[in-house]
Design goal:
Layout (H helix, E strand, L loop, with lengths): L11 H27 L3 H29 L2
Amino acid sequence: AMGGESAPSQGGFDRRFIDEMIAHHEVAVTMATEAQERASREELRQAAAKMAQSQADEIRRMREWRKEWFGE
């Protein structure tokens, strides 16, 4: 979880936020993928497909930021 850091040191909070959000979004993609495969309602399968795509897009964006900002 995100602990309290009073003064950001070299983007410590930013990097931690990105890392934790990537992990959070990866779980969302996994859940949405499962819903696409297992949900009985078409509406839910369609919503899950949109969620999986949007979360994957955000993961890509955050990974780009991490590399650009922190060289990793």
